[in-house]
Structure formats: C-alpha cells, structure tokens
Design a protein that fits this description.
heterodimer; A: mainly beta; 7-stranded mixed sheet; B: mainly beta; 4-stranded antiparallel sheet; 11 strands; globular
C-alpha cells in the first residue's frame, strides 16, 4: 500500500526558516514524481511544484519559483518543502502528493496524497 | 497559465438527487487532461477522475466525467450522504498545472 506520511504541524515566526517532510512507503520512491500543494485557510488548492527523486529533476509553478525549495533524500525515501524566510502569508496547509503511471507520467497529476502539514506563521 | 472557473460555487441538493458540476477553462485543455478531486473538511483531496472521463480505481460508478476542449462536467448520478464535499477540477495538460476554485456540494 502506497503511503505518504508528512511531518507534524509547525508554528513559526516571520523570518524563520522551515523544512517540512513527506516520507513515502509501499513503492519505489525514486520512480515516481512527488510534489506539493498549498491550501490557504478557507481557500482552494494551488499546485506548487514537483521533484523526480530518481534524478532530482525539479519543476516549479511560476507562482512559487524562488519562494520555496523542493528537494528529496533518496536514502530515506523522503521529500521536503523548505522556506528560508517565512512570511505570514505562508500560513497554510501543505499537502505532498504522488503521481502514478497508471494515469499520467508527466508528474502533474496527483493520485496519492499525504495527510497534510499545517504551517502557521505569526509574530 | 490556464485559468479554470467552476460553477456553481455552491450546489444545495438532497441525498438521491443528481449533481452536475461545471469546469470551464480559459483556453483548450491539452489532450483533455482534466481531473476532478473531492475534498471533505479536515481531509486531503481524493482523486476521482482523469482524462476528463476516466474513473480512478475504487471510485464508485455514480461519479462520471465528460467534456472536452474548454468545457467539462462532473456528474454524481445519485448523491450519497458521503458525497457532500468540495469538488475541484485540475488541468494537467499544460504547465503550470492549475486547479479551479472548487464547487461545494451541500445538503439541502
């Protein structure tokens, strides 16, 4: 069974750095695109970007390029979403999600989802 | 970037009724790469439909997708109590992939 397990909720101050994680299990981690989706409070879904852990190929939505960093550690089957300097507007739920070749190989379509990580940025 | 518009914003229906949700794209969705997701409060989205009309594994056949080009429809033939949720469309044929703002299916 494919599982994506995300790290726990975070409360941070503006200007602080943060890395949230997403551990994959039940499949070959290096063979599937994995990415991140933002959901601000009471709002819809926003596609942020993806990484292919097999070769670290990374793609970002223009809205998020330069704002966050997506990475992966193949040795521990874990993907990361990182901020160097948080803003209050980064307060949101963040989901990691994985593609499946059964439906699409581009990486843009998310089939399996993590449980979400709530990030709150407040002074 | 392709902008997706969903209508109505909220659909108030009773269990057993038919739900028809619309998703319109600002330009043609390449290869009809249009997906639908369901999200319940406090839960992650659930993948329902791909390629405009393909049903994902394990999704009940009361859910069906249709459409092409710029106009797409998600139909729930007979609403079950567990179907009341927010539904999002997503185009994944062009970069960047984009989601619509969602339609809430509420109990009347």
């Amino acid at each position: 069974e494919v599982q994506l397990v995300q790290s726990g909720a975070e409360v941070k101050k503006p200007g602080e750095s943060l890395r949230v994680s997403c551990k994959g299990s039940g499949y070959t981690f290096t063979a599937y695109w994995i990415g991140w989706v933002r959901q601000m409070p009471g709002k819809g879904l926003e596609w942020m970007g993806i990484i292919y852990p097999g070769d670290s190929d990374t793609r970002y939505s223009p809205s998020f390029k330069g704002q966050v960093t997506i990475s992966a550690d193949r040795s521990i089957d874990t993907a990361y979403l990182q901020w160097s300097s948080l803003k209050a507007s980064d307060t949101a739920m963040y989901y990691c999600a994985r593609q499946s070749d059964d439906y699409d190989s581009s990486g843009y379509l998310f089939v399996e989802w993590g449980q979400g990580t709530q990030v709150t940025v407040s002074s | 970037e392709i902008v997706l518009t969903q209508s109505p914003g909220t659909l108030s229906l009773s269990p057993g009724e038919r739900a028809t949700l619309s998703c319109r794209a600002s330009q043609t969705v390449s290869r009809n790469y249009l997906a639908w997701y369901q999200q319940k409060p406090g839960q992650a989205p659930r993948f329902l439909i791909y390629g405009a009309s393909g049903r994902a594994t394990g999704i009940p056949d009361r859910f069906s997708g249709s459409g092409s080009g710029t106009d797409f429809i998600l139909t729930i033939s007979r609403l079950e109590p567990e179907d009341f949720a927010v539904y999002y469309c997503q185009q994944y044929g062009s970069s960047p992939p984009t989601f619509g703002p969602g339609t809430k299916v509420a109990i009347k």
